[in-house]
Each structure stands twice: as C-alpha cells, then as structure tokens.
C-alpha cells in the first residue's frame, strides 16, 4: 500500500468522466464509498489499479482518477491477478456485477479465493443483469417476475458469502450501497487485508429491479458477539437468508499469492539465467 503524506479530497479522485448510471442506482453509493475509502487511507492514486468486468457496474474504473482496465465479461479476476503479480506494490481492486462474478466469471472465483490473491473484490449485486435490461442473474430470488422471466424465475439463488467461505476465503463481508459510511469502513478493511478480500455489496437496480424497500426491511448488522475468526459461525450467518447480515463475516491471515510466489522464486534461485534453467529442465 503506497500512501501520500498530504491528504486528497474525494473530488480529486473523481475523473472527468461523469457516471451515466440511472439516477438512484446503487452503484453511486459504492463509488462514493470507494472514493472515501481511498482518501481516508491516503492511498496514492498513482499506485491504485481498478479492473472491471462488463455490466453497468463494469463502468466503475472510468469514474476514478486512478489506473483502470475495463476488461471483458467475467474475466475481471484473472485480469486483477495479473496486475497484482506484475506489480505487487499496487493496491488492486476487481469490481463488477453479480452476473459477471457468479455466471460467466464463476469459474475464476474459487481459484482467486484459494490463491488468496491480495486484491479487494467488490461485487455490486443487484440480483439482475442491469446493462442488458433485466434478465435474471444467479442471485435473483425464486419467483422474480420481469420482462425476461414473465412466469417468474425458478432456480434457487446462489449465496455468494457462503460460496467464498466454502472456498477458503480469508475475508468475506457484505455491505449495502445505501449505507455508505459502513460500506466505506468495509472497503477500508478489505484494502488493509493482506489477501483476497471479498465484499458483496447489495446495490439495487432502480430501473429493472428496485429492491431498496426489501433490503431495507431485511438487512441487519452482524451481531457484535460474532467472532470473525470462526468460519463455521460465519457460515451459519451467511446461510440465513430471511435476514441479510451486513459487516465482516470472516477474516483470517494467510500468506498471499504473491508472497508465496516470492518464496518459490527464492527457492528456485533468482541468480539463475534462462540458459541455466533450460539446462536444468530441457533434455
Ligand atoms: C461474453 C459475453 N457474454 C455476454 C455479454 C452480454 N452481457 C453484458 S453485461 C451482462 C450481464 C450484466 O449483469 P451484471 O454482471 O450483473 O452487471 P450489472 O449490469 O447488473 O451491473 C451480459 C450478459 C457480454 N458482454 N459478453
Ligand atoms: S440499469 Fe440498473 S444497474 Fe444499470 S445503471 Fe440503471 S439502475 Fe444501475
Ligand atoms: Mg447485476
């Protein structure tokens, strides 16, 4: 994490590109929380990189005055992993939607989690495909009736927090875009976590599936007595779906991906030339 000595203001981190999200979209709350987290931690934007997938949420990097890479649909995690491996000094974010993360990109998630790549992954979960005008996503609830599902969805939704906990996540949290102060704190904790920080953010799509009222009713803070070092207790909280807990479910420290790659590099010997390596492995 490379920081500045002087403070930046949120406005310094806003790029000249104005968000074209619909007024009221939850993604505004996520963007503002992210900018506040970056300024609170005094992160040097020249050492921040934000990779995104495709979706309304995928537009995110364009609005931040830092390095950004708007990738292809579902491939944000390989992209962010590559950025971190190429330059471990960068603070790296992956951002995207529920479709990007849990449909087309779902195969990448367990591996980024188990590798413990030191990035913060913010998934803006609106339980729908926003950009493509409202098709069901893997987190849509059963019975969701929209134009693309006129008789209601019937597949059970995935449970993102339970998924990453079962993959061995070292940091799993849930926030709500309409609670930006708490979300800012979660993002700061994610950035400071030395490993893969997974943050599911409830971020309603006002145009195709307005869930503000539902989530206002069913969201509750994680109980104060919850021990975030207890994976089983975290899983029990995650499996409760009648209420949706907000906060940090689980956190532990484990060597990150690039720390382990460095260890392998040390073992292999850094003074070896390509010729030495070829002699050793090519017969
Ligand atoms: C390979 C590929 N398949 C499908 C699409 C079409 N597509 C674009 S965004 C999207 C889903 C967006 O939903 P989500 O990831 O939840 O993001 P949101 O718009 O809701 O933020 C799809 C299916 C695409 N761009 N590329
Ligand atoms: S369509 Fe939905 S997700 Fe996309 S910008 Fe509009 S409100 Fe946000
Ligand atoms: Mg979505």
> How much helicity do the residues have?
25-40%
Q: Helical stretch count?
A: 11
Structural class, by secondary structure, is: alpha/beta
| Head-to-tail CA distance between termini | 43 Å
Q: What is the C-alpha radius of gyration, as a whole number of Å? A: 19 Å
CATH class: Alpha Beta
CATH architecture: 3-Layer(aba) Sandwich
Question: What is the CATH fold-level name?
Answer: Rossmann fold
Q: Give the overall shape.
A: globular
Structural account:
Helix content is 35%, strand content 17%. The strands form 2 sheets. It has an 8-stranded mixed sheet with strand order 2-1-3-4-8-7-10-9, with helices on both faces. It has a two-stranded antiparallel ribbon with strand order 5-6. The chain has a single domain, classed as Rossmann fold. The N and C termini lie far apart (43 Å). The protein has 11 helices and 10 strands. α2 packs across α7 and α6 packs antiparallel against α9. The site of thiamine diphosphate has 19 residues, from β3, α4 and β5.
Keywords for this entry:
Rossmann fold, eight-stranded mixed beta sheet, two-stranded antiparallel ribbon, 11 helices, 35% helix, globular, binds thiamine diphosphate, binds iron/sulfur cluster
Topology summary:
Layout: H1 10-13, H2 27-40, E1 48-52, E2 67-70, H3 76-86, E3 91-97, H4 98-104, H5 109-115, E4 120-125, E5 128-129, E6 135-136, H6 160-167, E7 171-176, H7 180-192, E8 197-202, H8 212-218, E9 219-221, H9 231-238, E10 244-251, H10 257-268, H11 274-281
Parallel strand pairs: 1-2, 1-3, 3-4, 4-8, 7-8, 9-10
Antiparallel strand pairs: 5-6, 7-10
Helix pairs in contact: 2-7, 6-9
The structure holds thiamine diphosphate, iron/sulfur cluster and magnesium ion (MG).
The site of iron/sulfur cluster has 11 residues, from loops.
